[in-house]
Amino acid sequence: MDAADINNSRDKEPMKGGYGDNYYMQLCHYISKFKYGNVKNEPASSIKIDVKGDFDQWDNENILTYNDYIDDVFDRNKTSAHDWSLKYTNTTGQNDIKTVKVTSDKDNVYFYVDTVDPIVNFEGERTMTLFINTGSKSNWYGYDFAVHRTGGSDMIIEKCKGGYEWEEVGKAEYKLSENMLMLSIPRKTLGVSDKEFSISFKWADNFSGDGDIFTFYTDGNASPYGRLNYLYVGEK
Asked: Which fold has domain 42-234?
């Protein structure tokens, strides 16, 4: 009875195929609505970051910070609970994301991310990729921009053309050191240059490259988990 059909289910656990993460996302939505109601998110403090400077610039209590779950990146090799001849194997775990930060000034939006251990395979495809939702109509599951999706030594900024199709629109300035990465994206590139703005974003590492968003649950590491996103409101 817990999962009678798609319209009558008490099982919130995401599944592969079928209803996906519908019930899990509904649960998150209604918990947020119950706890916070119609609370308006106020703009965060405007802080300029020198991307070529020291990482200790981010040690500022006024910078919005999100802490991710750690120790959740490891190889999986388990026997099915229903068919002992079937094994589930996944070795995509690579970089364990630990802390995410974001701030902005009148010209740029700045992002910071660190991992438990030094970042590996940085130039590989889909390594330490940043997805950003600015509210555009052409998007992939809400994401209008992807940064470093194609890998390489440059952090290429791509804009979504619709579906999982992207076009290059610029390059982000960045600095990488051991387990820390920071970058700067012009507000003009994101289309938020002349107003108070709200964006949602996520970091994902070593996810599938076939446009299946549900691999944010199963492959590599994503911060936040699955289809969830972090929110940032910036000043004009």
From this structure: Immunoglobulin-like (2.60.40)
